[in-house]
Amino acid sequence: MSTSPDAKNLEEGLLIHAAEEEEANTPPRRQRSLRWQNNFLAFLIPLLILALAYAIYTVFPFGDRHILTVDLFHQYAPFMAMLRRTILSGESILFTFSGGLGMNLYSLFAYYLASPLNILLLLFPETLLSEAVFVLTLVKVGFAGLAFHLFLKETFQRRGAFSVIFGAMYALSAFVMAYSWNIMWLDALILLPLVLWALTRFIKKGKFALYVVFLALLLISNYYAAFFACVFMLLYFPILMSQHTVGWTGGRRFKVIMQIITATVIAVALTAFLLLPAVQGLQHTSASGDKFPATVEFTANPLAYLAQHFMLLEPTIRSGYPNLYSGVGTILLLPIFFMSTRIRLCEKLMYLGLMLFLILSFDLNILNFLWHGMHFPNQLPYRNSFVYIFLVLTMAYSALRSLRDLKGKDIVLLTMPLVLAVPISVLLLEDLAVSVATQWATIIFLLLYMLVFAAVGLSESQTILSDRTARRDFRRSTISSVLILLMLFELLAHSISSVHFVGKNEYFGLRDGYAAGAKPSAIRAALADIENNYDDGPFYRVEINKQKSSNDPALYGYNGLSMFASTSAESPVKFFENMGYYSNGINSYKYTGSTLFLDSLLGIEFLLAREPISHEEVLREQVLDNGEVQVYQNPYALPLGFAVNSSVLTYKSTGGRVFQNQNRLAKHMFPELGDVFTELNVSNLDSPPGTGSAGGDSSFNFYKTYPEESYTLHLQANVEEAGTHYLYYDSQGHDMDDLILRTASGNVRRMNDDGLTELGFLDEGEHTLELNFSASAADSGNVVLRLARIDETMLEQFCVQGNRAGLELTTFRNDQFSGKFESPQDGVLLLTMPYDPGWIVWIDGEIQDNIRQVNSALMAIPITAGEHRITMRFWPEGLSEGLLISAIALAVFALAIIFSVLRRKRRKQVAVGEYIASDEFLAAPSSEGGPDPESVGAEGTSEVTYLEETPASTEEERDLRFDNFLENTAELREQSEADDFSDKMEQYYKRTYSYPRETVSEDLDTDSTEAIDDQYKNENSENDGD
To answer: Which string of DSSP letters, residue by residue, matches 960-1005?
Structure first.
């Protein structure tokens, strides 16, 4: 039986009327309960799915692993431990000596630690650091789902379960699964939807306060990821304006745009206290030196970006294509979006243009460079891909309401090309590593979505008027439930797969030994024991051999050297690398590679051995052994500062010559000093007579006899004087298995890493070195190897002179200290801490403007001979200006809110009508029954409550009557608003019956009457600035 179009339209209108009447009849408390229920589910569902994925991977408390991997292991978790310790101890947030010999903590805080959610760290003891990070990750993912759900509700004015599911798809996208260990980036995923949600309210209702607050929070939480979000919001803004300003005049649009610009400036200014110092600090980092691309390059085939939407695809972390997956269903919903008759053409074109621009931004090197802040990232490519996911999911959600406009065959015709594109894209792209499982999973889910989407259209086309109410609702509910379960199952499978790949490629380690377990507890106990028994002043440095992370000082809370942070200055890194320390050459240096001379120079007095020292230690004294760690004390350690010869200002280190560099540095400080290190001759035992295979300058050639096999190069060193020795080794990039030292006494020492290694005490005699090259090594090449003995007499003389002119601290905090010293001659006060322009120095009460640098690394202050007093205080560059700007912005923001509140109250008062303020209002009602209700005001109040039968005699009485009037008419006002809403609904129903296609449709999610009411209000009211 066929149904005429008019009957169908009437039938649909009746159904919408019934659904909305049921919504209108639902008690307000029940409506609020449903809204909060959906909000809670939007938060809980992604949280539980991710928790389940980690539980399957045996993450604690479901196993013995933690989620700390890559930089979360080496950087973020140690910094979180440091933040927790700083807050609880009351130490300064401006500067810390827990890493890098001293670093700008305020700049580091702005980049890594400014998320307000980090307050949750205080709820966990230091032994549960891994679990605190785990919970924090789950909470942030949950909030991301909630935020996107709220954005969809505000933008599309629809209620129901699908905005909840799309929130979960956003929170568990490929970007999140690949980069969730970059935990500080997750705040941007939370706040991007919230800012756009608030911006939508700003456009529609003129309410600016939440927009300012959320935008400021976005910039504060992590300004790096906020940059991506802000660029995207700028590009997305025209779409918002197009959606929510239909029918507006040009003047009204211009007014709103100017209001938004003003609010944006206020929000940015509110963050100046943090961002201005952070920007100043970035000028000294490696990220500031990248050059603009000289050529235009495209990086991939367009089909590669389609493949990044496949299910169960291995996430990109180190290198590869952008992480774009957010659900297989979105692939099918995108063409439906562009086919929809419910979406205006101009809106489709704007969405299409923005989507293509974002894809081009991935592919074009210049745009990629600009998106990343004029910088090419060091690994972790396409860090802005989450904004693409945001856009695609928004389009897909918008397309949902158009499903019932399509017939089943339309869905099939859309799906088949996409199914065929899966194997074709894999065949055409040789560098695209897509497994067979990934291809089949994508195809199967495309077909499943096709069946469900087709069922929607089939259900709509087969609906009969006689069974409209019951059977249609049942079919819709069934189809919606099947679709929701399909989406949830896909999300769960994707999350489990992604956690597996991240764990496989980057490794989720064992929690024991990091922050929890016997070893960390023993380290903390040893540090506490040192603190309690140290009586040589308020400052000393400690280090750990066999570090657990690249930031052990931050992780365990001691003043140390090891440091790895994107905010660290670039210039000191080369100095420490040339001294022999391990370094990545960009923003990290570690204690690995130190010598006793460097320990003494830099004031590293205590060495904690995580594992028993493998060499014979004779120069340090063991002062503690608690069964898990041993503590050695360096008797030659120098204070934080000491006076040296001014020639140290001319010192320049060179690469690869670690022992010469240290000797020259010591002589520049004290010119009369002899060499601290004596290099030994090393010969090549495999060199036939006369071949000269020793390349000179401690460089040794090797030639593999059988190219496909491993090879061992034998070297010999003749030790003429017993003592503590060090070995510097550089494999020049050749594949090495290990290096073995066989001493004259028969002991064997195995080493696996390049760099500087302490060999300990070696007796006189001949010692053999075996360099084992792997089978994959080159057929021939050369390596660099240097062996040296430290001269204890010269080391002692160096330390005696340093201590004689050493700085004696009288007060000490991380961000300020004072003390006294005596210099035997004019020179400089060398401070063994990296130079930072934020330090303010007073000597003998006079501020010093001429703070110098030693080899672009250490600080030096010119001084005269004699006794001096020094005071130093750290205040980050730009902080004073930033505080002033933020204070002004806060005052302006507060005044704007006050003005807005007063304006709103005034409007409410005016709504009662001018009649209230007149003398007639205070008089008794007339015989005709009082004033005409139409004159009462804009609210349309139909009844007037009279205060007294006689006029007021005084101004005070008039004010009292006015206040009583407002109280007495509150109930009448609410009734009036309810009646007004009923009138609007009646008009809406009439429009529904006459023009069902032009109304807000109900889709798989039923539209709420709030949407209709808000739409009516926005079309008939001016912006209110609140």
So the answer is: HHHHHHHHHTHHHHHHHHHHHHHHHHHHHHHHHHH-GGGS----SS
Considering the domain architecture, whether residues 290 and 433 belong to the same structural domain is answered as: yes
Nearest to 310 by CA among 177, 453, 176, 444: 444
User: What is the distance of C-alpha 227 from the center of its chain?
Assistant: 11
Angle made by CA atoms 124, 125, 130, in degrees to the nearest 5: 70
Residues 495 and 594 in one domain: no
Please tell me whether residues 335 and 451 are part of one structural domain.
Answer: yes
* Tokens 């935020």 belong to residue: 147
Nearest in space to 803 (alpha carbons), one of 817, 790, 821, 819: 821
Exposed e or buried b for every residue in 414-440, given b needs 16+ CB within 10 A? bbeebbebbeebbeebeebebeeebbe
Q: What span, in angstroms and rounded, lies between the C-alpha atoms of 820 and 870? A: 6
Listed residues 609, 639, 669: the one ending a domain: 639
**What pLDDT does 1018 receive?**
46
pLDDT at 772: 86
Backbone angles phi, psi at 718, to 5 degrees: -105, 110
Q: Which of 64, 908, 956 is nearest to 508 (CA)?
A: 64
Does the pLDDT value for residue 862 go beyond 90? yes
Mapped onto helix, strand or coil, the DSSP state of residue 628 is coil
- Whether pLDDT at 544 is above 50: yes
State how far the Cα of 534 lies from the Cα of 527, in Å rounded to an integer: 10
Number of domains in the chain: 4
Instruction: Measure Cα distances from 979 to 47, 967, 975, 983 in Å.
Output: 42, 20, 6, 6
With 0-12 / 13-18 / 19 or more C-beta atoms within 10 angstroms meaning exposed / middle / buried, residue 909 is: middle
Residue 335 in contact with residue 450, Cβ under 8 Å? no
CA distances (Å), origin 962, targets 779, 948, 950, 977: 99, 11, 14, 21
How far apart, in Å, are the Cα atoms of 760 and each of 255, 470, 561, 608, 682? Answer: 76, 86, 21, 16, 18
Question: How confident is the model at residue 27, as a pLDDT?
Answer: 63
Q: Among 247-256, 809-818, 980-989, which is the least confidently predicted range?
A: 980-989
Instruction: Please state, as a whole number, how many other Cβ atoms lie within 10 Å of the Cβ of residue 44.
Output: 15
Task: Encode pLDDT of 135-159 as tens digits.
Answer: 999 999 999 999 999 999 988 888 7
Q: Is the dihedral of CA 621, 623, 625, 630 positive or negative?
A: negative
Which of 15-19, 20-24, 635-639, 690-694 shows the lowest per-residue confidence on average (mean pLDDT)?
15-19
pLDDT (mean) for 602-630? 90
Contact status, residue 331 vs residue 443, Cβ threshold 8 Å: no
- Checking if the pLDDT of 974 tops 70, the result is no
Q: Which amino acid, residue 721?
A: E
In a domain, 908, yes or no: yes
What's the pTM? 0.85
Given a contact cutoff of 8 angstroms between Cβ atoms, the answer to whether 671 and 686 are in contact is no
Rounded average pLDDT over 459-484: 70
Looking at the fold, whether 423 and 546 belong to one and the same domain comes out as no
The whole domain housing 760 covers: 677-790
Q: Are 1023 and 244 in contact (CB under 8 A)?
A: no
Task: Give the pLDDT band (50/70/90) at residue 997.
Answer: very low
pLDDT for the residue numbered 10: 37
